[in-house]
Amino acid sequence: MLKKLLTSLGSIVAVISLGFIGLQLFDNWHKVVAYQFTAESLAGLLAGALAYAGACFLLSSSWYQILSALSSHVLSAASIRSIYARSQIAKYIPGNVMHIASRHMMLNRLGVRHKPLAVASLTEILGLVSASSTFALVGGAVFGLWGDYITQQQLYYIVASIALAILCLPLIRAACLKYIPASQDLLANPRLHWVLLRVYLAYLLFFAIAGAVLVALVFQFDGNPGFNKVFAIIASFAVAWLAGFITPGAPSGIGIRETILVVSLDKILLAGNGVLIAILFRLITVSGDVLFFALAGRSK
Question: What is the pLDDT of residue 3?
Answer without folding.
Answer: 47
